[in-house]
Amino acid sequence: MFLRNDYRRELRNGSLGTVAAVISEDALVVDFDGTVYELAGRGLDNLVLAYAVTVHMAQGSAFRRVVMPVVRTRLLDRSLVYTAVTRAREQVVLIGERGVTASAVVAEASAHRRETSLRLALRGHLPPRPGG
């Protein structure tokens, strides 16, 4: 997984690739969706092994199979389950208690419950709302 935006190579933070060849101790050939790059020296600093990725990191990507551990947490809600499930092209495996999964699917999205104080922080910096 590439960890930074590299506009010259058209690689983005979260781009997933496959190591195609090891050239030397500090040089690799990596295939990112059919485009092959030789990464060496400092270019390798932005590359890490990614046997698994978080749901948030997977946004915008698709995978043949998705395996998601389902555990009761404050962040587990229907939007997280939806995002994970819709990343899969062929198969989804949810591992955990059915009750936890069922609760997550009906839970209000945690983003809707978040208290940020953003409105207070922006007061006086935005134009008034039309009609109000």
Overall geometry comes to flat
- Distance between the terminal alpha carbons, to the nearest Å? 48 Å
Q: How many helices?
A: 5
Order of helices and strands: EEEHEHEHHH
Helix/strand class: alpha+beta
Beta content: 25-35%
Q: How many strand units?
A: 5
Number of domains: 2
Q: How would you sum up the major sheet?
A: 3 strands, antiparallel
Q: Please state the CA-atom Rg, rounded to the nearest Å.
A: 20 Å
Strand order of the largest sheet: 1-2-3
Average pLDDT across residues?
87
Helix fraction, binned, reads 10-25%
Provide the low-confidence segments as ranges.
Answer: none
How does this structure look, described?
It is built from 5 helices and 5 strands, in the order βββαβαβααα. With 132 residues, it is of the alpha+beta class. It folds into 2 domains: 1-51, SH3 type barrels (Roll); 57-113, no CATH class. Helix 2 (78-85) crosses helix 3 (98-106). The mean pLDDT is 87.
What can be said about this structure in brief?
The chain is an alpha+beta fold and 132 residues long.
Which SSEs are present, and which pair or pack?
Layout: E1 18-24, E2 27-32, E3 35-40, H1 55-58, E4 63-70, H2 78-85, E5 88-96, H3 98-106, H4 110-113, H5 118-122
Parallel strand pairs: 4-5
Antiparallel strand pairs: 1-2, 2-3
Index terms:
132 residues, alpha+beta, SH3 type barrels, three-stranded antiparallel sheet, two-stranded parallel ribbon, 23% helix, flat
